[in-house]
Every structure is written in structure tokens, then in C-alpha cells.
Amino acid sequence: MAQFGFENDIHSILKLDMPITNAPMARWQRKASSSNTSAPNGLSPGKSANVSLSSSKTPSKTPGKNKKQTPSKMGGDRFIPIRNSKQMDVASFLLTKENEHGDTNNAASTSENQKAWSMSLNGYNIEDAKILHLGGKPLNAPEGYQNNLKVLYSQATTPASVKKTRYISSTPDRILDAPDLRNDFYLNLLDWSSRNVLAVALHNSVYLWDATQGDIILLMKLEREEDYICSLSWTKEGSYLAIGTSDCKVQLWDVDNQKRLRSMASHTARVGSLSWNDHVLSSGSRSGHIHHHDVRVADHHIFTLTGHSQEVCGLKWSPDGRYLASGGNDNLVCVWPRVQEGSASNESQLVRSWSEHQGAVKALAWCPWQSNILASGGGTSDRHIRIWNVNSGSCISSLDTQSQISSLVFAPNYKELVSAHGYAHNNVAIWKYPSLTKVAELNGHEDRVLNLILSPDYSTVATIAGDETIRLWKSFEVDPVKKKAKERMVKSTSSVIHQSIR
Question: How many domains does the chain have?
Fold first, then answer.
């Protein structure tokens, strides 16, 4: 029995439902006692007068933090835009007015008055104060406002969003008559100057057509009726014109004054090809010889090249003046170095000689953007366009055009090659370079095309054919930036030989 009495005592001690006599006062008891013993005015003896009644309560914020109150979260997810009060009033008025059915006949008559009233009263047009503008066009920005970002909702098409498709007209832009034209494959009867003047040889006369003004001038006419013009070539600045004749002479004319400056005789046969390199004029003859003339000195004949056995019908200096390309009726394409003054005539001066063509080579063209690339075209027995690398001497590519090739020219605007053809197509073809894929054909001539030349702005091709017509084909788009740069360069270029021709 004593054992059971001991266990009961232990259980009674361990029970927690009895008050603990020695424990500290509970929190609620401290609060109740402090409120009961507080003074009527809320001040306790010995405390500072600036302590409030609520100072005994647990502080709502951590001590030491700033005293800003926690903002209320009511309405915290709303965005209220700040708008001028006047504009809000006007916008409210407009929203209520739009629901009314007014007279549409008076709308047009009062629109100007409303705009005037709004500008006078509000300082701005009420149409610009609408909250939402549901019109088809975006609002115009205020004057002086600049924004470099694109307007995403603009209905205007941007250049990047429009796929540009090139259009090449199949009809000529202009047709000029060329009566009494000599239908001879080996002659070069057309040239276009940097001053936009087209020179054409009609039998024994040379005519000038100003492409800008449209004026036509008869520059010269040979004295004997049986003589005829064989070749024409402008100087780089376009002030002087070299003329090769059938009486073995080369004439030099001042176009501005319409005066012949000199007549140079050195060949023994007709002069069918001409090409300028600064003050040196190169001429190719039916004898197969090529002469270099220094037009600054009285003894003009300074050099002779004897690489061809038949008539030299093609002659072109490279744009950088390093090489002279010549083509002949002997089916050869030759490349000669720059003129060395004081040297004797020597065939060893030949840089390259190619004999792959099977017909006369009259068509020659240097690539303006690749100085070592030369294009040549063969006659009726060959009909091939061949692209040569002068540095390596290799033939880069060859294309059978199925037609006689009379002239070639590179078009820098689109990096293309233009060819003029005789039998059997009698047309003009545009080829993509260097793939030589055909871009377009220009048909219209009724006889073989004899010569082809590009305008100074590279936008227009001029062709002359045995049907006694000159046709201008506007086949290449003009780059405005390049056009202005070209015009400035032409105006600023001074004549190299203006002061020294004798």
C-alpha cells in the first residue's frame, strides 16, 4: 500500500494543470496589472512625459529601422496614368459625344471651326487628345520630336519588306537614225565621252549627239568622197576626239572649238582601232601593226608593236594603264605592257598571246573591278566569249553564244557583261559575271550589231547596227550616290593634254 501511495504522489507532481507557484507572472497578467495601475492621465511616476500609453505594448516594427509606415496594399495592383486634367475633360466630352447621332451634313462645315476653337481655348487640337485613335494611319509626332525606333504599326512599306525585282525593258529607250553607216565588222564607229556626248562615224563624216541637250553637231567631213572614217576614241576627260581614217591617218580634234589640232601619219593601211592611255594614243592598222603616238610632241610616233599578222580590229587599254589588249583578224589576243619611252620595237615586249579563238577577235573588254581580268569575243567561226586572267595566263571560263560577237563591255552597276552580236541573232545579250548566265536579251535591230558602248553613268547601252540605227537601251539602274560622285570627279578633272598638244 505504501508503494501505491508513492506513485500517486509522483503523478500529482508531474501534472501540468495545477498552477506553478514559483513561476514568473504570465504576459496577460502583466498587461492587465499595468493597465489597472496606470495613472488617469496615462503617465507613470518616474517616466518621461513624452511616452504614450501604447509605449508599453509590443512595437509594430523592429527597433532601429526607419520610421516609415508600411503602405496599404489596397488598390496596389491598379495603374492610374497621369494625364493633364484638361485633356481628360476633353476626352470625356468626346467619348460621350461619339455616342450621340449628329447631323453628318454639318460635320464637314464645322470641322475647321472646332479646330480653331480648340487651338484658341486649349492650345492644342482636340483630335490629338483622344485616348484611342482607331484610324488607319498612325498619329504624327509633334514638331521637333525625334525617335530612332521604327513604328511597328505603320502601314507604310519599308525597303526591307519589299522584294526588289529588276525590270529590263525589251524595247529601246530611244532610236536614232544613222544614214550612210558603213556596214563593216572590223571598224569601230561609235564612242561615248565622259561629258555625255555620243560620237558616230557615218561614211566620211563624224557627228556628235549631246545626250543631255539632244543637240546634233557635224564635227568634220573628209575631203575626198571615197575616203571613210574607220575608228573613233574619246580622251578620258572628253575634250578631244581621235579619228582613224581609211587614208592611213589619225586626226585629233578639239571638240569644244570644233577645230582639228593635228593629223598624224605613220601607218601604211587604214586605222580601224584606237585607244587612249593618258597622253599616249594607240592605233591599230590593217597592216597588223600597232603604233603608239605621244600627242604632246611633234615627233608623235614613239613605238611600234608587231605581234599581229592581219588587221588589228580590237584595241583596249586597261583602266589602270598597265596593259594594252589587242585583237586581230588572225584570231589572236595579245596583251602588251605599258609604253616604255625610248625603247625600240620588239616582239619580246609581248606579255600574253592566246590563240584559242577560231575567228577574228574584235570584242575586247577589261573588267573595271578586277584589273587583271580580260574578256574577248570571237567572230562567226568562233562565237565564244572567253575570260582571261592576265597574271596567270589561264582561261577562266568560256561560253558559246551561238552568234558572232562584235563588241563586249562590262556593266559595273550590276557586275554584268554585255555582248553585241551579228549573225545569226543580231541582238544584245546581258550576262551575269562571273557565272556567265544569261540575264536578258535585247532584240530590235534588223541587221548585225557592229558596236556597243556604255554611257558615262553606266545606266544606258548604245548600239549601232547595219540597219542604220542607233538604239539606246536603259538596262541598268543608276545609283544616285555613285552618280553624284562621278559628276564631281568629271568636273574636277583637269585636262592632261590641254596645254601641251601641238
Answer: 2
